[in-house]
Amino acid sequence: MSGTVLHRKSGLVFISGQTAADEDGITAQTERVLQKVDERLAAAGTDKSHILQAQIWLKDIERDFKAMNGVWVQWVDQDNKPARATTEAPMANGKILVEIMVVASAKETP
């Protein structure tokens, strides 16, 4: 599995699902996951203002959606909000509360 894929022909950057099982609580996990997304986007030569789509999975959507969404709203580029889907899903590791995957465009087209 690749953590980041840059499709040079289309100029799209695919960031695999990021998690943070080493953090306690949905707020801390969401903050760490978004930090990891920022780091992967930067390594691919782009940033969150170029995110086109985000997929978010929550272990317990009823309990954690509001807190996760609060962190997301503070983090997302307010002038370039991506399309987003959020759903509940069982996680591969019981400590994981949130997983986020994004697709972004490169800053410069190939």
TrEMBL record:
PANTHER family xref list: PTHR47328, RUTC FAMILY PROTEIN YOAB
Species name: Diacronema lutheri
InterPro entries: RutC-like_sf, YjgF/YER057c/UK114, YoaB-like
Name the UniProt record assigns to this protein: RidA family protein
Endpoints of the signal sequence: none
Highest taxon of the lineage: Eukaryota
